[in-house]
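From: lab user (bench 3)
To: helpdesk
Subject: output format question, protein + flavin-adenine dinucleotide

Hello, I'm new to running complex predictions and I'm not sure whether the block I got back is the full result or only part of it. Here's what I submitted:
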Amino acid sequence: MTTDAVVVGAGPNGLTAAIMLARAGRSVVVLEQANEPGGACRSAESTLPGFIHDIGAAVMPLGVASPAWASLPLEDHGLHWVAPPGEFGQPLDGGRAAIAYRDIERTAAGLGGDAERYRKLAGRLAADWDHLAASVLGPLLRIPRHPLAMARFGLHGVQPATRFVSRAAGDLYPALFAGCAAHAVLPLERPLTTSFGLLFLALTHTTGWQFPQGGAGRLSRALAGCLASLGGEIRLSHPVRTWDDLPAHRAAIFTTGPATLARVAGSRLPHRIRRRFEKWPYGPGAYKVDFALDGPIPWTATALADVGTVHVGGTIAEVAEAERLVAEGTHPEQPFVLLAQPSVADPSRAPEGQQAVWAYCHVPNGSDFDMTDRIEGQIERFAPGFRDRILAKHATAPSELEAINPNLVGGDFGGGSHAGMGLVARPRLTVRPHRITDRLFIGSASTPPGGGVHGMGGYWAAQAALAGSLR
Ligand SMILES: Cc1cc2nc3c(=O)[nH]c(=O)nc-3n(C[C@H](O)[C@H](O)[C@H](O)COP(=O)(O)OP(=O)(O)OC[C@H]3O[C@@H](n4cnc5c(N)ncnc54)[C@H](O)[C@@H]3O)c2cc1C
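Helpdesk reply: Thanks, we reran it on our side. This is the complete output you should expect:
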């Protein structure tokens, strides 16, 4: 029996690719090395019973906005998005915090002398978002459908984040922006870091920074359920090490890293592509800690108690310093910590009155340095008494992330470095980045639009296959 398509990897991109193919009437088999689907989008009771933590991704601004998922009946398969009252915030010393709400006015009102500047920027981004989404959530090297909106985005986006906010009147707006721009996992003095800041602000004031109710794993279960309802099959505990591990097929979509694809496909890849993929450059890793708390985090800035995501890093200068040190291969004393407290919007995540908290910081790729104490120190700085609330904790180092999921090489959670041409030549400089040959495609986080839970890499790879050998 020859299946139309085989998809390697059952993360958000693999599941999405398979759904798109099954929906188009093609037979599809997904091969996954782990014993459950989801990849870096899964949940587990990693600290104590009743505390549901996310193994990888937790906060899903890109997922809620995903054009690929908008047309899928994921609610019928158990997915419900929950929105916290505040989208994200960034505490500063002295009990102050910059907080982003869905409402632009409310956000601007908290930014002092930068209120008007923010109002204008956020208003424009929110108004442009529908036009921008089509371009920024797909291959970058193509003629944009809405060139004016994209030109505005691009002109600002190419700048370093530190320069973009350099004329701010106060320190709250730059801190707020730094937290978004640091999702680039690059020093904030580098070009293009502003584009991440703008993208995440646009999402803030449109669809928001929401969580799947019950944890990230619910999203993956919904995608897997949707695939099953369309007749697709997932084979778990099925690692693909050689080409012989693939059943007979007409097209193959890999949602692995490029190096894995090169190892498995070998000489089936055109020579130049194979050489590039074998030397695929990775970005910094994540060092992650799950905390089971006996109550809410005692933020000095009390308004943070209602915010889903907290960027814990201080001023833009401090965040920039932390990210620069990581890029130089060292471990900051005061890391930039990304923290989610989904319990503020979803009581199902922890026993009554208690909280499941997720936190990670960036570290050099493959680092084995224990950052737990430094992560706790940063949180304690803005929430004295935090450590006293800890009932249990579970740390995951980069090597452990990679052991759970081979896509997370050295703890790299973005599918490859964004440095140099890393954002544009992803996985190589071409107008058809998801197509390798007429029968072989790639759709992981190493392809446009890059890392994050949105399924769009898989979506575009499926479209390429449907235009290729699966026509
Ligand atoms: C700690 C951490 C925090 C994150 N936080 C967020 C966040 O809050 N929000 C967000 O949007 N994103 C976040 N991300 C990023 C996001 O999870 C990833 O970008 C996204 O999951 C990528 O999807 P994917 O399908 O390309 O790959 P993955 O989710 O990595 O899935 C790939 C799948 O392929 C399987 N696989 C790999 N090799 C093989 C093989 N040879 N044979 C068979 N199966 C194989 C893996 O086991 C895995 O299941 C985070 C990631 C991590 C690790």
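A quick orientation on your result: The chain has a mean pLDDT of 96. Let us know if anything else is unclear.
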